[in-house]
Amino acid sequence: MSSRSGSLLKNPWGKPRFLPLVTAMYILWSVVPVIIAIRFSFNAGRSRSVWQGFSTRWYVGTPEAAESVLYDPSLQSALIQSLKLAAITMLVATPLGVALAIGLARWRGRLAKPANFLMLFPLVTPEIVMGVALFLVFNHLYGFVAFGTWAQFLGHVTFSISFVVIIVRGRLFAIGRDYEEAAMDLGASQFQAMRRVLLPLLAPALLASFAIVFAISIDDFVISQFLSAGADTITIPVRLYSGARLAPPPSLNALATVLMVTTIGAVVIAGLLFRALGRRRGEEGSALESVAGFEL
Amino acid sequence: MPTNLQAAEYEAVGQKRLVWPGFAFPGVLWLILLFLVPFYAIFAVAMGYTDPVFNQPQPEWNPLYWDPTVFGEVLSDLFGGQLGVIALRTIGYVFAACALCLLIGYPVAYYVSRRAGRWRWLWLLLILAPFWINYLMRMMSWVNLLSPDGQVNRWLEVLGFDNPPSWLSGYHLVVILGLVYGYIPFFILPLFAALDRIDDATLEASRDLGASSTQTFWRVTWPLSRNGVLGGLVIVMLPMFGDYYTPNLLSGSPRTRMLGNTIDQFINQTTSQGGVGAALTIVLMFFVAGLMAYYLITINKATREARE
Fold first, then answer.
1. What are phi and psi of B279, to 5 degrees?
2. How much is the pTM?
3. Which CATH superfamily, name and number, covers B80-269?
4. Looking at chain B, which residues constitute the CATH 1.10.3720.10 domain(s)?
5. B41 and chain A: CB distance < 8 Å anywhere?
6. How many CB atoms lie within 10 A of CB B156?
């Protein structure tokens, strides 16, 4: 006993028991509260701390009671708003980002570098700064943009574009230009080479971008909150925020669980697509690292 | 004829020149209109004036007419006023939370990257799980647990504590632990990547040359992972400094107010103080930019040294 504690003091990392213990405790700490929250979304009673039996009433309960995610007007509208916003953000941000990635990878002009730099900025700007900036600009300059869905959509696309560029850029460099040049040597025009050669090669990255943008958009809280307008445009995370302290029924947990399943579904799809793409190790790099790679 | 050919060539070259910027154009335009201009709007409002009729802040778009009064008031309040207390508290919270992130996160990242063996993929999956569970859901889970009639107090009652505290009413420690809980996955992941990149051969070489495992850790592993630690700390500091939802959910008391809460309040609620909110956002921005710059310079220096 004493010899073990002695060697533990001398070498805290070498003892194999200390590390797995800390890791296991960390994982319990990080996962168990969420599991408890999910469990109580299936509670038969109104309590979120006393288990009263299993039920799905908080998910699909009757329209008369209007207490489930499906039928409570405020939960239902949050769910719809979140899905709607994520879907349109995904459809607009992905093409914009893909085009930007291709353009930035090949454009050699004097303005290419500042453009690249501009693209990286949203990734390292704290969300609250972006939220304040967008709030003020829609308030004072772009008065024609209504707060609510429109403003939220513009905000979500703005922070999503850069993620798409990062995802697609890795793939672009891996593909190189050989295939396109071969196609053009064989008589294809630039446009044809892109459409028939580059785009099919980019397809997995493109689909993965759709899924990732969907996930980060539906998960966003700060921008959605700053740009919302009234109860109709509240998204799921904003609803969780405003409802959590008001002793809500388990339907709020159910709403959170629905969000979690949706996000994880989108990420799993993205992961499978990335896998199909055969992404090599070493291509990975965080956004911060790509900023760090910049010459100052 | 040759001139025609030349003209065609020029045209082709000209087209080629325009193709790639053309691809980038919509995205760049989007970012200019919805990222750069809004950024400028923060300055315009902070240096603007107050509409005397509606008592609402108005932007001043021309920098020649910028009025630094509000900005100056905010700065003087930051150095010696109520805002200063909030700023110090924010810095204290963030540093405490970062220290805890390092203390908890390093062993976890180290274990999963270097010692986890056959079940590595499972550990990794569990470490990644919080990334895709919404932040607000994770905070809500703790609100559930810590609420007056929540699970934690029920357990405490079982253990014989009669008057369990009401956790969500302004405890510094609850907010700090909430920040750690919320952001530690973002610290662990880059650190994991850095530790994972260390070549086993360097560690073996150190052992072969007679270093103990403690010495190997402090003289080889730790220096090689320092950039990962730094990167992880910057990644968690950026959102922590702008956080307002964590203290709001886990305390809601003015005792645990952070800078983000003040900004949120002046922009979203007391809109007549929008200028103050904008000025505070600028202060926050410069502070965070300073951190980023420090990080980038350190990393650049490290890569340059590694190259030499």
1. -60, -40
2. 0.87
3. MetI-like (1.10.3720.10)
4. 80-269
5. yes
6. 14
